[in-house]
Amino acid sequence: MVFQINEYLLFLKNRNIISSALVILMGGMIKDVVHDFIDDVIMPATKGNVKVKKDLIKIYTVKILNLFVVTYLLFLLSKSLERINL
């Protein structure tokens, strides 16, 4: 069993699977923020509704802060995995 775990960890390291997974997670979060911004702000503005509600500003401030916090934590996770040579 120990041999299989070491072989699996070597496979993950050589194929850069962990880095790919982190990039996919960050890309998904960015896509969600951009998609919601387009649906809630850009599309109504193209239809003549130019008013930006204060609620939207609060919502997107929280979403962007959440995006930065999560991507920073993923960065720290990546660095810690790099230190233990995974």
Radius of gyration: 19 Å
The N- to C-terminal Cα distance equals 18 Å
Number of domains: 1
Taking pLDDT < 50 over at least 5 consecutive residues as the criterion, the unreliable ranges are: none
Largest sheet: none
Nearest-integer average pLDDT: 84
Query: What oligomerization state is this entry in?
Result: single chain
Fold and architecture overview:
The protein has helices at residues 2-15, 17-46, 54-83. Helices cover 86% and strands 0% of the residues. Helix 2 (17-46) runs antiparallel to helix 3. It has 86 residues and is an all-alpha fold.
Summarize this structure as a short list of keywords or feature phrases.
3 helices; 86 residues; 86% helix; mainly alpha
List the helices and strands and how they pair.
Layout: H1 2-15, H2 17-46, H3 54-83
Helix pairs in contact: 2-3
Question: What's the gist of this structure?
Answer:
The protein is built from three helices and no strands. With 86 residues, it is mostly helical. The longest helix is centred in the middle third of the chain and has 30 residues.
